[in-house]
Amino acid sequence: MQYDLIVIGGGPGGYVSAIRASQLGMKTALVEKRELGGTCLNRGCIPTKTLMHTANLYREAGEGEALGLQFGETGYDFEKIHQRKNDVVAQLRDGIGQLLKANKVDVYQAAGKIVDGNTVLAGEETLTAGHILIASGSVPAVPPIKGADLPGVVTSDAMLEEAGVNCERLLIIGGGVIGVEMASIYASLGKQVTIVEAAEKILPPMDREISQNLSMILKKRGVTVFTSAMVNEISKTDGGLMCHFTDKKGEQTAEADVVLISVGRKPCTAGLFADGFSVEQNERGFIQVDEKFRTSVPTICAVGDVTGRMQLAHAAEAQGIAAVEFISGMEQATVNHELVPSCVYTTPEIASVGITADEAKKLGREVVTGKYVMNGNAKTVIEMQDRGFIKVVFDKETDVIVGAQLMCARATDLITELVTAVSLGLTREQLARTMRPHPTFCEGITEAVEAAAGHSIHTAPSRR
Fold this sequence. Notes:
Blueprint: E1 2-8, H1 12-23, E2 28-32, H2 38-43, H3 45-61, H4 78-102, E3 106-109, E4 112-116, E5 119-122, E6 125-134, E7 138-140, E8 153-154, H5 156-160, E9 169-173, H6 177-188, E10 192-196, H7 208-220, E11 224-226, E12 230-237, E13 240-247, E14 250-256, E15 258-261, E16 265-267, E17 300-302, H8 313-327, E18 342-344, E19 349-354, H9 357-362, E20 367-373, H10 378-382, E21 389-395, E22 401-408, H11 411-424, H12 428-432, H13 443-452
């Protein structure tokens, strides 16, 4: 079969690319060896957020008395929780299939192997095209820890697929996004949770205040957090598993029924290239691309996790759209794929975009920050939300917003306004002119913006 574009991978970077290519008039094929939707839909974002929603409802039900609500004895069915998660995934997966069909994208349910710059084997079928786009994603990375292959030691795939993993004691190696979200889910369901993180704080790339605040909230909910801790070994005991690690206090151990390893992901490139052919990859195996997502073979592009850039579904989508638009001859992409918001779906939610004040300092850039603690926000008080804040960062010379960090209810929705503001280069004055409704969480943005000028109405000045 002859195509204009062959896309390998049916996750967010792949199926969105294929649809956009078809809309631009390209005859397009999509090759996917597993389920449509990729990791995000089947073993990542969607299953996690579905479980998180249920876990949060269960935790909030336990706080009903403070709201004047009375319930009988509460409980949950772990199997049914995961069945609903599976139903949500199946519904959304069917929707992707319908979108691809409606946009006349040919879907091959097979492993894709790239033979050369214009040829792909989809199972037993040979496909050719003017361009190939790799969106094969990533898989969980497992470091060479002694005992990592023991029964009961799992990755996020096992936690999120099918019936999940039910246990009373969960130890998580890695305090990144996956780690803290899993900790939140299991702690809300009343499980004993321990996090062991090698860096000096959980969520290492995030704003320091966010990491500190989340640690405090997790500990309040019964989660034990060890930082600056290096895992030496996982061993089997009569009662389950034992994790041996070293932190500032010396040798430590922690017991668990299940150990989740969530220390990052590696590119999914096994079997992707035929013998004797490949594209340039770095020392970690990620495919190298230029500013237009072209690999070392000009007719082959790559987007998403497999390139080692920000491993987020929306980033992969934006990159995929940009890549096919560049292939079609467009000089500028319709989506800004360089400004990527980051979101963490703990409670409270966490979201950020642009640079932090600490990052600006390292760059030698003078900035002014405005911060609003959400304890004074009416909607936060009404909904009994945990302590959170909104922080905005402005360039001191131009007064243009360059970043924002949020830790509050609905942060992952609120961040969109600030992504738009950073993208358009809006000034503090322009943001301050926007009237935001009351009572809402987004009022906190007004307060943070005004705090940057030192005259917020509802909070003490926090300009620096």
